[in-house]
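Re: beginner question about structure tokens

> Can someone show what the tokenized structure looks like for a real chain? I only ever see the sequence side.

Sure, here's an example I had lying around. Input first:
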Amino acid sequence: MRALRATMEPLPLAHTAFTALPATPLERLALPADLSGTTGSNRARGGTPQIAAADDLAAVTAWLARYTDTPATLQTYRREAERLLLWAVMQHGKPLSSLTHEDLLRYERFLADPQPAWRWVMASRKKLARSHPDWRPFAGPLSPASARHTMVILNALFAWLVEAGYLAGNPLSLARRRRRQSQPRITRYLSHAMWQTVKDTIEAMPGTSDSATERERLHAARCRWLFTVLYLGGLRAAEVASTRMGAFFCRRDREGAERWWLEVTGKGNKTRLVPATDELMVELARYRSAHGLPPAPLPGEERPIVLPVIGKEKPLSRGALHLVLKEIFALAAARLRARGPEWESPAAVLASASAHWLRHTAGSHMTDQQVDLRFVRDNFGHASISTTSAYLHSEEDARHEATQERHRIGWSSNN
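And the corresponding structure tokens:
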């Protein structure tokens, strides 16, 4: 975990000077004493604190340290805690440990329109390093659903700080309780027609032509493989980023037939087996061939399952994978818009798609093809998996067969 505390020369600033600055990563700020939280109005008085934190930054760091073994969760929680702390000290003029319920309501409204934009919002669509002078904590306004998710995370932060004896009370505990509703239908997925547009877009990339450069060829091969493994495997972007080639393995079923599997470690550090269908293994061999590698991975092979186009064979970060996906979705949206103004609505859907949309798309298409819901559940890691029972082993073979027969990507070109 990258510490929130200073990793470079801090900027000592007077309280009033904050109003003239853009939002800056916390590790570059040296907070004045009245904004550090050492004397916050909501600090716990008396009792025995369970953490050694003397100020708000140290307290938030202690909370984040609990998630070092789940990088994706850590990244999300750090982002939300940092946004709130920066808003509190730079725009609202209060330390985090002095925020009231009314302050948090004001912050929730701020999330829908982070203003002034020059201070809070990235001007570039490209993800910038935290050390870059143009870095900002927001890419744009948050949707109502994203804002609600933010407040859930912050509620967990405040509740933990109260339990740890750092804060006297949780200012979000007074929030209006929403009645629990039935699970909504998944809406963030691509129809079969839109999914075909995505595939057509990839197959028309410059790297697929005879005149393509080496970089274009490898980039096109990577796009095709990335979309293949996300769709056929139903993987999350974070799972793709952390999985190695050696996670593919082959074993024989009861009839002696060879079946390939992919071992994936997902949320909560839980491991599951994903059927590596014949089609997936053909695409893997195709992708490895583009890099001059033998068709099948070796046991224990440490190469990442998605390789960089240039440079060392280091795994791409989740952010880098998202950039590749967004590029393809943007090209697919442009492909639809070129057909005429009546295609604007589905084009807008494609332009807003992300890695998790592919996971929802895969699940929806599998159920469309009548794949048993139990098999979809296990493929996606929504339940624990056992490989020791003979009965469950037979069930896994059935899951592999059903997935292979009915869930296909169907690229039109196989050369």
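Each token stands for a local structural state, so reading them left to right follows the chain. The first strand starts at residue 11 and ends at 12.
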